[in-house]
Amino acid sequence: MEKSIRILVVDDDEVDRMAVRRSLKSAGFLGEISEAENCALALEKLSASTGSGAALPILQSAFPPQSNSGGKTEKSSATNQIFESRFDCVFLDYRLPDGDGLSLVTAIRNAGIKIPLIVLTGQGDEQIAVELMKAGASDYIAKGKMSADSLSRSLQNALRVYRAETQAVLASQQLKESEERYRLVLEAVNDGIWDWDLSKNEVYWNDRLLEIIGLPRSQFGNTMNALYDRLHPDDREEIIRAIGAHLEQEIDYNVEFRLLHSSGSYRYCISQGKAQRNSGKPLRMAGTIGDITDRKEAETALERERQQLKQIITCVPVAMAMFDTEMRYLANSHKWLTQFDLGWQSLINISHYELFPDTPNRWKLMYQKVLKGEVVSVSEDAWERADGSAIYLRWAAHPWYDPEGKVGGIVMVADKINELVEARETALEASRVKSQFLANMSHEIRTPMNGVLGMAQLLLHAPLEPKQRECARTIYRSAEHLLSVINDILDFSKIEAGEMRLENADFDLDNCLESAIEMVAPLAEEKGIELNFLVDSSVPRKLVGDANRLKQILLNLTENAIKFTDRGQVLVRVTLKREDRSTASKQTAKLLFSVRDTGIGISPEGQRKLFQSFSQVDSSPTREHGGTGLGLVICKQLVEMMAGEIGVRSVPDEGSNFWFAVPVEKQLQFEPPHPEFAGKNY
Asked: Fewest 10 Å CB contacts: which of 110, 260, 607, 624?
């Protein structure tokens, strides 16, 4: 006898209950025994032991307390329910104070409690025992014949049957649950499911597959021919052959085909399947059918766009190529072939590095940056070829992206500019030769011109007649003007050739200004013009820079002001630039020089001609004032070399104001105080 069995004994006779306990003990049972004296108490214990509140109202409604009904109770809707009980078996007396055993057995079974029920009957109650067995009792024992052996044998048989039935019920429930889960999976997946029973030649199609076809189940057959009939004519034989190869040779079944929809259009599908076999013989075959029409249409559209792009690249009149992420050619223009002397060969799927093994490593690094999403553009690049030649290119590379937003490769445009580079080098060489020639010629001319000036100056100091002195003075002035022109040409050629160098030395601003003013003072005095210069007290005097070039700019602007002024005055003024007054540091300052006159002024059209090489406001042969047109150009270039700026403000018939602003460094020494303005008249 098993040791852990729990038993409920239902009997109103204490002697009978003791007899049952004694017999169980004699049979070797040492488990838990509970007792109940009537039907109501038995029902209460059974209801509590089920662990579910659903059993209690079912039992009470079928067998209310103190009921003495001898008839059969109406079956409850819970007949098919199974409630677990903490009791393994119930021994119950047929006759109880509040009812009979037949009604109690019926109520327990209707409540879904399936534990073994062994009824204890009196002598001669065989007919009652038969009714009890029909109602659901597991066995019956006559009290007069009850012994340890009979009790043990009946209990073991009842438990064995109960456990077998319980296992069968659980297996059936699990099978139903598994089938339900399988059915839910089949109906919930987004792919069509088919299951082909080869022995019956019947196929199960899930609802999703019917949706792909667009037909109700009633209009679609249950054989594979129903599927074959809806295949595209070009795909049918291939699919039938693939299924046959899988069934006969176990070749993987993984195919694509077109399936006719009820609307008349074809849907692109992908199908996989596998056969179930027994000793190598296929019994059934199941698989999936997925609708990939959207993906196919997207791939077709993408391929169409790609082909259009390749066609555009092929016909574009520039050297262009399209690469994948491995730098293999996807497309290229005809100009790409001719520019790199590749003939008319096809470059598709050829590696760029295999085609051009002498590709510089620096370019390879740039290509990797482009593949990470950067854009690279080079205005001029020299490609040293393996054969020693050089190709000059202007090129750019951009990434292109696939539909998922990832970099799919590179689109590159390249333009061979050897001719442009050669033309530029030729022009630069010609300019250098020209500048060298001008410098040499200016030097060669200036040497004898200094001799002419010297001799004319000596001649003016000799005793001459008035007519002779006037001729000598004319020679001196003409030679002096010619020397000025030669100096302008020499400076211009130096600047144009990039040979002009600025000095960086200590100088005194007052000395620089006085030297410049003293050189032009005779011209102003000769024309009867008042010449003044003013220096703001905030302007530092001890500076570092090129005093000679600064004086050259001032001389040119001041000479022009005197030249074009017939009456009035010319004012040279130096201040700190307005925005620099509060931001000037202890080491640097920005000086503003202005030369203001009361001359003829310049029209807006004339102002646009200023600061241009060989350009003059009045270029007519009968102009009153001569010149090369280089003075202001040289001034502008010198100012820009000093990192400054130059400009003019002028009103016709009222005068002009030429100004320039340049940054300067201060000398590291004490600056003595100055009056508010320091000025001088000439």
From this structure: 624
> Is 23 in a helix, a strand, or coil?
helix
A 10 A CB-CB count for 213 gives 22
Phi, psi (degrees; rounded to nearest 5) at 392: -100, 125
> What one-character DSSP code corresponds to residue 682?
-
The string of pLDDT tens digits covering residues 41-92 is 888 888 776 655 445 555 555 555 444 444 444 443 333 444 567 788 898 8
Q: Count H helices and E strands in the chain, helices first.
A: 19, 25
Question: Do the beta carbons of residue 583 and residue 626 sit within 8 Å?
Answer: no
- Give the per-residue pLDDT at 242: 95
Q: Is pLDDT at 277 greater than 60 in this prediction?
A: yes
* 255 DSSP 8-state letter: E
Strand 530-536 versus strand 569-576 pairing type: parallel
* Helix ranges, 542-609 (H): 547-563, 604-609
Residue 205 CB coordination number (10 Å): 23
Neighbours of 558 (CB within 10 A): 24
Instruction: Determine the Cα–Cα distance for residues 450 and 445; give it in Å rounded to an integer.
Output: 9
List Cβ neighbours of 223 (8 Å cut-off, separation of 6 or more): 201, 202, 203
What CA–CA distances, in Å, run from 614 to 246, 488, 638?
92, 11, 16
Residue 229 to residue 674: CA distance in whole angstroms: 110
Q: What residue type is assigned to position 541 of the chain? A: R
Nearest CA to 286 among 296, 276, 295, 294? 276
267 — pLDDT class (breaks 50, 70, 90) = very high
